[in-house]
Structures
1.
Amino acid sequence: MASQPTLKQLRYLCAVAQSLHFGKAAKACFVTQSTLSAGINELEQTLGAALLERSNKQVLITDIGQKIIARSQHILSDIEALKEDAVRAQTPLSNPVRIGIIPTIAPFILPRVLPTLHQDFPELQLLIREDLSENLANLLLQGELDVLLLALPYPVNNTTSYHLFNDPFVLAYPTGHPLGKVKQLRTRDLQGQDILLLENGHCLRDHALEACKLQSSQLSLAFEATSLHTIVPMVANGVGVSLLPEMAINEGILSGTQNVSTKEFSERGVWREVGLLWRAKSPRDSEYRLLGEYFKNNSSTQKA
């Protein structure tokens, strides 16, 4: 009987397709590079087709490789759905949930929610992955994650979103800055200011600009950081002003920091929407809604 492609081989192939790098793909699959390479070679021999073009500098996907990868992603997604079907009838939130959370939410919501979550659902094992939205979305579609906690809207095909709350943006500025004297702060007051934002790739940057109805070309971007905790001391030292999510301030991101003041905007809508995202046809839809309701009711007090 002729050999058949294995699920492991399909996972290896999809991992390479995502990163176009054998080393990164092997790390994502928790195997050695030689093991991953051998698995893909065996898959190519089984199918009788070259799926990848390899060189020392890059990895290219052949035309037939593109088709096989697309089919493989569907197969892996169906396998995940099959496993989820097996646990659907059991007690809600009694099985592992792999959740991806973006860095501008994770440290500010988890400390409030996790202690009581484990008390109320003692059998739940929450497996947390912190990463940028784009990376988390790819892992969700590949079946490597079950649900995402991120800022909405985020464009991912065939997914269901669940609104949790609106997280207002608050202006953080060096104490004594002219904006501190503005009685009714409006987003237009930011034009021409030295703004400290997260670097490209962080959706908080895009949501902040969108909420304030600003374009990057309208601003003087004094500094681009990799985390909010890097931005705070820059504000304290007078480099510029920044837009911080209220949840970060409520969780003490400014604690122990001198020379930083905050001011709320007088306009409505200067916020980001925080919510959950999962695959549209997941058989655990009701469980994720239950999880969303729990996050909504037990996170810090935000505007609904």
Note: The first strand starts at residue 52 and ends at 54.
2.
Amino acid sequence: MRRPRLRRADPLPSEVRVELALVRGEQVLAAAREDTTHAYVVATSYRFVICTAEQILSEREWFDVDAGQWDPDTWTLTVTWVDGRRAGQYTFREQETRVPETFHERVQASVVLAAPLDLPGPRRSGRVVIRKDLRNGHLIEQTVLGRLTPADDPAVIARVDQLIAELRDQVGL
């Protein structure tokens, strides 16, 4: 006699799935309920979403994510954004979730090519990145400057322009 296959319970209530309004080809890859707000943190194939059954609180494409940091001691995922918006922190104490791993995989999948600015001196950090929109495959150029790197510095502008040209050439843009 065959034993039935056990399935892990779907962490998303049907009302939350409806609110996500998944587009064609989009799938929920991981989800967990955030401890502080009780909103759902959802990693789909195309987006990183924070939502409740009533509304989407935050919704960003994977190419909008600058970085993420998982703290296993506090069970907290910290997310920073390319546009410099305030970082988000999401805590999942002792929940069985694949959100941190899926987050990392999706962000990496969106990075096609990256190069550091490598400018001499303090306050001159940053990078130029070619990212992929995972929804449609379009390539996007991004310049991510360090907090104290002056965007109007002629040396920074020249180096960014040079790197963008090099990366565009490497990916055939």
Note: The chain has two domains: 14-108, 111-171.
